[in-house]
Amino acid sequence: MFNSQFKKWLLIGLPIVSIMVFYFGCQQSKDAVSGDVASQVYVAPGSYDEFYLFTSGGFNGQMGVYGLPSGRLFKNISVFSQNPETGYGYSEDTKAMLMTSYGFIPWDDAHHPELSMTDGVPDGRFIFINGNNTPRVAKIDLKTFETTEIIEIPNSAGNHASPFVTENTEYIVASTRFSVPIPNADVPISTYKENFKGTISFISLDPKSEKMNLAFQIIVPGFNYDLAHAGKGPSRDWAFFTSYNTEQANTLLEINASRNDKDFVAAVNWKLAEKYVKEGKAKKMSAEYYHNYYDEKKHFAFSDVKKEVLVLDPKDCPGMIYYLPTPKSPHGVDVDPTGEYIVAGGKLATVIPVHSFSKMIKAIEEKQFDGEIDGIPILKYDAVVAGEVQNPGLGPLHTEFDGKGYAYTSCFVSSEIVKWKLGTWEVVDRIPVYYSIGHLNIPGGDSKKPWGKYVIALNKITKDRYLPTGPELTQSAQLIDISGEKMKLLLDFPTIGEPHYAQSIAADVIMKNSQKFYKIEENQHPYKTNGEKDARVERKGNDVHVYMTAIRSHFAPDNIEGIKVGDNVYFHVTNLEQDWDIPHGFTVKGLNNAEILIMPGQTKTILWKPAKPGVYPFYCTDFCSALHQEMQGYVRVSPANSNVELTYYTGSPQKK
Amino acid sequence: MKNILSKLAGLIVFAIVLLSISACGGDEQKAADFSKTKSIANDPNAGLSQFELENGIGPVKQKLELGPIDPKLVKKGEEIFNTKCIACHQLDERYVGPAQRDVIKRRTPEFIMNMMLNPIEMQEKHPVVKKLLAEYMTQMTNQNLSFDDARAILEYFREVGK
Q1: Nearest to B87 among A521, A532, A579 (CB)
Q2: Is there a contact between A551 and B88 if contact means CB atoms under 8 Å apart?
Q3: What CATH code is assigned to A50-511?
Q4: Rounded-to-integer distance, Cα A568 and Cα A540, Å
């Protein structure tokens, strides 16, 4: 009796329990999404997204390109990391991009994407991103979505407050999260207060050549400089940097750098700094650093090694830099679209302090100082603060703006976004995010003219939000509609690498300039093959140069003999196609390097050092046509002392 | 019986799928295209005008005035041909595509121009080119030539085909 009732219970009860477990047990954070949100993020097959979203790859050293509102991933741009898919950082023509004064460094920690601006509005020409670990700033050309320039920052460590741009991209900033001896020196770490300094660097972008140049650095006290944003409109001549660890601790910063009630926002008048440089107030300091650039006509990267840098000392430059006291270990510093309000996210503070630019100028004029540090006047907090947002949430980090008078601040500890009103500082709405939001982004939300519409939460932790993939889980973004009074969650989508920050921009600004292929007649690669007639193999001692062409669906030459063990075989492959979306890939068996993916009209070079005699097939790795499987060839490798003559052909041995 | 039932069920599912496809496919543009394709299938000229049959489909829509052969243009055409075309076309022998020395004798100058400038549509729609594709198996790639580039290559063909 008991047994059969138990069975009945099992039969009826188990499915119910399992359904309940399925719905409620496995996932703590399943939130009710209200209304017809699916139609708001659905981009029909064959249709385009409204916005591009660029996310930092964090520790993968790349940058992700997504569409909004769909959250679809389009591309991972190789920046500070080698990419075996394209050969970036492996091929002879791109290796120079990853050169530094510490040698070849195939990785970095890529933090903050920043779009170039004209008149304070993203113009879609370039996007910059900083390398935090071995201080670097990269420029990506948004015609090709390829990294075309990387400049190393000397006298720096932990290039975190970077690469934010001034109103017309006159400068891209960089700074030291980790203060270090400058110039670097072998000193006891305990001499931090005496020997360690920070620097704030200004990289200029030449309006004509569009090349970066480290214009000058400012030596600053040894705090941790964390984030930055340039002013706009009335504050356009200024740039603002948060600092923490004003305690100048060099161990257990978790406790020791959290003692002071207030740290500082550094306000730098870059226009005045520029004037001081012109007047010769900067000192030349010797410092080795690399400037790498990819010549888009030569399809080849080059490195210039620089030997000195101009350095300004605030003691010699009155009026150039001020400290604004700011509670407490502030992270983000964000300037509203009008250029008047400077919002700091004090991650340990209970309020969000908002400074006023006009009050700051008045306080400077009236010399409302509260002492100075190393020649940098400290302004009185009450003389510069415009207001405080009370009870915003725990751990406010970063703020962006919708252009309609509201600000949106991410709160890391309480995992939420708070919406508050500029001027009245009242919190008007809040929405939970899953989980532990770092930065957030609104299309154009750090510019003079935000597109508004969405806020994207960039979450550090996903836990139970997605199907599990073992101990390592995806990172995540959440798309939230901000077009109405209340924020509305629309979509979760995974992002690759850690999303430290993101930028988004109306798609039409960029897509109209997107390049479809490289014109073959403009290709000036030093090892280009001018059509199949020129395809050939040349031996120079142990170096063998294969001038190869690729077109649907064959390589020329496709049979090569006379290669010897010990040779350095350079495959210079020119893609002769002149049509959109027809790359060819190239690899050869045993190639202890990467493949190369050659865009139409482009040439790429990969080095192969065959170690054993034999016959080695090579083939096209990117499906190109109905006869893609036929796109192949052979290289014969003979012993080092063999007499096999160097021959090559396509079609028949008589024809070269 | 079971067999019949399952077949019936299959038919019903098929009908539902069909219904749902027609119910969802409210795209008038596509419907119009479909009817166009149908009429082409019944037309011996494949829906092409007499001019298009003789001179191809593309930017060249009327006869060209060519004049005497211009040696400068021949030189330019040869250079472009050797960079962008020779990977698939030789002058005197079949390669990936047909030999080109006597192309000027096989086709009108306008046909050659349209084939160079609009290869994808030519391969999709022109009956002569469709036959070529069936014979050579490899699609002719679009090399994105400018009108002037194609004109120069035509001059080269006029010279070598003399």
Answers
A1: A532
A2: yes
A3: 2.130.10.10
A4: 10
